[in-house]
Each structure stands twice: as structure tokens, then as C-alpha cells.
Amino acid sequence: MKSCLKLTFDNGQTALATQVEQQAELANALVEIGLGGSRPVLVVVGGASNISEADFLRIQRLFVEVLAPIAETLGAYVVDGGTDVGIMRMMGKARIQIGAKFALVGVTPESKVALPNHSETAADLTPLEPNHTHFVLVPGKNWGDESPWISHVATVLANGAPSVTVLLNGGEITFKDALSSVNTGRLVIVIAGSGRTADILADALRGKATDERAKKLAKSGTLQYIDLSDIEKGVENLGKVIKGLLSNEE
């Protein structure tokens, strides 16, 4: 394990970051940046590409009206990929918009991101999302190398408490994210109607799969979907399901 860092973003927000090389280091590394104990964990994976403005706004509603408020109410940890794009940006903005205090933890390959207030920032690096509270910088040369780390961080943070993964939209890496959750036995809630990988997986759950990866994941028994085509019903259903799972309510 390397040093812990305090990051200061241009918007004035600060975050604590830890650099880890091996999964065995995670528990101590997380405690050092104030993430200990046992709490419910919400994992958010996917993307927000190739969607219309209307669909973007519908997905954004899920963050502002469901995911962020539930995390705040339950005092949950939220774990995602941490970069300033797509659903990770939505999560960060939703947290600020509702004035929440829950810990928002980004897990990302250190070699692929630009750290604020670090002079070695390169043009080809992706910025971190500035409204996250914590970052776990992990080894890896390619996007997708962080997928098993995201799942493992969630398991360590939960420490026996309930956890669930919500999957929206997404591309190729989202299949890896889903598999990583499935491999740890974590339920994955697929948001049908959010596009791309989410819709491929939802079709597989409906028995309409053509993608072999989706078929395999659907057979795992750890995926279910909620339809976003009716936004009002989708928001209500997702809220009930996520809150119930994370609070151990039937």
C-alpha cells in the first residue's frame, strides 16, 4: 500500500484517496481514509452513452430521486468508477443536489486518471469526478481492470451488511462489472430501458438473449430487472426494491 492523498478539486471540494496494489491491502487502506465499520453498500455501474436527451433526463431522475436519497437515508456507502463522465458524474451531482453526506467512493485505475493539484497531469488522462468523497486508486493499464476491484471494495466496505449493484446503460466494460458482482454473489438490478448493455441483459432475463455473455449472466440467478419505460412506475419500483434490499426488509 502506498500513501494516502488529499485531493482538492477546482470546485473547492476535497476528497481522500488511497493507492493500493493488492486486494489484501484494501481493508486497512479503507480504514486509513475513514471508511471502516459495516454499512449497506450501493454499487453503481454502467454508462450514459448513445442515449437521447429525454433518456438522459429519465436516468438522471433515478439518481436524484432514488439512489442518492436512499444512500443518505440508510447511511450507505456508494461505490462506482469515480471518473467525471456518465453515471459517475450523475451520482456526484445528485449527492450535491440533495445536500447529502454519504460517502461516495470512486474506484479507478491510477494510470488512467488525472489527479487534481498534481503537476504530472497528462492530456490523455480522464479527470476524477469532483463531488466524490473518496477514491481508491488501483493497478491496471486499461479501463475494465478496475471491475473486480469495484466489487471487492464493495464487499470489504459492507463487511457483512447488505449490498446491491445497479446497472444502467453501459458498454463492453459493463459486462465485466456485472460478472464481478455476480462472482461475489451480489444481486445486480438491471435498469431496462436505459440502453445498450442494460437492455441486452434485460432481454436475456426475458428469454430473448442473443448475446452469450448475457445468457450466462441471466442464468446466474443474481440478476433481475426493473423497467424504466414507465418512468413514474420505474422510479417507485426501484426505490422500493433498493431500499428493501439494503435495509434487509422483505
Automatic annotation (TrEMBL):
Residues 39-232 form the LSDAT prokaryote domain. GO terms for cellular component: plasma membrane. Pfam families: LSDAT_prok. GO terms for molecular function: ligand-gated calcium channel activity. InterPro entries: LSDAT_prok (IPR041482), TRPM (IPR050927). This is LSDAT prokaryote domain-containing protein.
